[in-house]
Amino acid sequence: MYKEFYDRINLNTDLENISKEICKKYNLDEYISDELILVGYEDFNYILNTTKGKYCVKIFNKERTNKDVNNYIDRIELASTLNINTPKVYRVKNNCLQIIDINNNQYRLCVFEYVNGKSFYDLNEIPTEKEIKEIIKQMVYIHNAKLDSEYIYDKWTITNFIKEYKDKKNYLDKKYIDIFNKLTNRLEKVDFNKLVYSFVHGDIISSNVMKDKNNKLWIIDFAVSNYLPRIVDLAVTSCNLCLNPNSKAKTIESTKMILEEYQKYIKLNEYELETFPLFYDLANAMGILQISYLNSIGEASDEDKFWLEESEKGLSFSDNNFWNSILY
């Protein structure tokens, strides 16, 4: 049942054995149990329960190079210095990254603070206006940070749409070809020098925003964070957290609000606002593209099907009336 998930790290032992080694390294007392976190892509995440408490473990995907992993460590170390609500990362001898060798297989991992709550995805909730405003406040703190690390290529990042579309267009339903060709043409004309770059999370969506038992919000998973146009974060967050699939009017209201709220802290320039609809469409198109590919190779999960429906609905909402209501 979990073969694809286990294959991410070439798991060749009982997970309990890795957990017990983690307990020793981090002085977490006695191992009790572990629980897989099946939401999300790329890495292998699970909750480790010990006699000392609960912890979140991230084991890096076997496909990630050591350089990629070190770049990710740079990002979580930066995130830990910001004035945002994100789980702290634990260290052993001042190092976030630890390596456990079992049966000639190296598991590169980090251990994080456990947040006693659920993501908006797991709660099946759309954030309230108050919650979206708090999320935007957290986003602003992220954008004000300085990232001194190399770029990490991520196939879901919307600025990589042209390459990904070229590689995977044959897996798309033909009804999208004309739409995606037009998006490609529009993206090719974007003057990226006119966009403002910053440290962006890149994936502030319902599965990466948690609400704990005290209703405090937490931003998790900086795995795809990068130095990118800040409009990327606004587009990705808007097309997910602001989407009400049952109401175009409420989606317009929330998307307009998110732009207004952000600009209480940071003013967007005219070109950012002009290109925002394109990046919004690209965020939805990338979801359709990547999940269509996963469907074609038989690896789409229930989560993938959810994102596909969200992306299709978001793209269907996007028309002149939609944007005239938001931007003018």
Main attributes of the structure:
16% strand, 328 residues, Phosphorylase Kinase, domain 1, 12 helices, 3-stranded antiparallel beta sheet, Aminoglycoside 3'-phosphotransferase, Chain: A, domain 2, alpha+beta, 5-stranded antiparallel beta sheet
Descriptive overview:
The chain has twelve helices and ten strands. A five-stranded antiparallel sheet has the order 1-2-3-5-4, with helices on one face. Strands 6-8-9 form a three-stranded antiparallel sheet. It has a two-stranded antiparallel sheet with strand order 7-10. Helix 6 (161-168) packs parallel to helix 10 (270-296). It has two domains: 3-114, Phosphorylase Kinase, domain 1 (2-Layer Sandwich); 119-327, Aminoglycoside phosphotransferase (APH), C-terminal lobe (Aminoglycoside 3'-phosphotransferase, Chain: A, domain 2, Alpha-Beta Complex). The longest helix has 27 residues, at 270-296. The protein has helices spanning 3-7, 15-26, 66-79, 120-123, 129-143, 161-168, 177-188, 231-241, 248-262, 270-296, 302-317, 320-327, and strands at residues 31-37, 44-50, 53-59, 98-102, 105-113, 117-119, 197-200, 209-212, 217-219, 226-229. By secondary structure, it is α+β, with helices and mostly antiparallel strands. It starts with a helix and ends with a helix. Helix content is 45%, strand content 16%.
Strands of the biggest beta sheet: in what spatial order? Answer: 1-2-3-5-4
Question: Count of DSSP E strands?
Answer: 10
Overall average pLDDT? 94
* Cα separation of the termini: 50 Å
Instruction: Assess the beta-strand content as a share of residues.
Output: 15-25%
Written as H for each helix and E for each strand, in order along the chain, the element string is HHEEEHEEEHHHHEEEEHHHHH
Low-confidence stretches: none
User: What is the CATH superfamily classification of the largest domain?
Assistant: Aminoglycoside phosphotransferase (APH), C-terminal lobe
User: Strand pairing plus helix content: what structural class?
Assistant: alpha+beta
Shape: globular
The CATH topology of the largest domain turns out to be Aminoglycoside 3'-phosphotransferase, Chain: A, domain 2
- Radius of gyration from CA coordinates: 20 Å
Number of helices: 12
Major β-sheet profile: 5 strands, antiparallel
The percent range for helix content is: 40-55%
